[in-house]
Amino acid sequence: MRINSKICLFLTLAAALATADAKAAEPNIANRIDATHLLAQKYKLPQVDESRTRRVRRNVKPKQKGAQETFWVNNIAENKFEQIAATLQAVGQNCYIFVENTQKVSDKALNRIKTKFDKQIYPITTANFGPENNPGLDGDPRITLLLLDIQDGYKNPNDGYVAGYFFAGDQMLQSEFETYSKVKSNEREILYTDTYPSDVNADDYLEIVAHEFQHMIHNNHDKNEATWVNEGCSQIAPVLCGYPPP
């Protein structure tokens, strides 16, 4: 995959950061966990012949604010996929921001996430690591950002919690899984970020978005990349975007 010289200089340091212990919990803020590699280890995806033609949607009309959709999400605590309902609350140049219907995110926070993704995270991350699968299976160039309360068993500030994840299974058609498979695909380019106990107004929330977006990009270029390289790049991505490392 394409990595510029700046990335190479920082990669060794990033790998060390990736394996270090999480920061001590701040008041009301727990230690963050990236579930991307946990899910990759848990769910072994079937090998697909990507040279064959896939059913990809064409001439897709942009989604409209207020649209209601259901999504398959991973319940980390109960080790299963389940469906949630979410509403499209913001539409950017490069993203759709859906919010789980049980959660509340202010317009100010939504506009900030949209603007930072469009003007900072998307252009900087793609410039340094290459493009995501675009327009992807759903035929829509916009990436879905799903803001939800990830079910991870969080109860108090001393607990760890899942701050976000990218799931490679969403880059596959549901029909490509065995009929008995418990794995579910949303068949789109989608990132999952936590709304509780995460603070959607904080800079470190945008750091999570940049971190997970790099995982999406990396999956497009090298699905079998070594974990330490992939995670190292995701540690560097937010720094390039102007956000502190975790």
Question: Which secondary structure elements does this structure contain, and how are they paired or packed?
Answer:
Blueprint: H1 5-19, E1 31-34, H2 36-42, E2 68-75, E3 80-91, E4 95-100, H3 107-129, E5 143-148, E6 160-165, E7 190-194, H4 203-221, H5 227-240
Parallel strand pairs: 1-6, 4-5, 5-7
Antiparallel strand pairs: 2-3, 3-4, 6-7
Describe what this molecule looks like in 3D:
This protein is of the alpha/beta class and 246 residues long. It is 32% helix and 19% strand. It is built from 5 helices and 7 strands. The chain has helices spanning 5-19, 36-42, 107-129, 203-221, 227-240; strands at residues 31-34, 68-75, 80-91, 95-100, 143-148, 160-165, 190-194. The longest helix has 23 residues, at 107-129. Mean pLDDT is 87; it is low at 14-30.
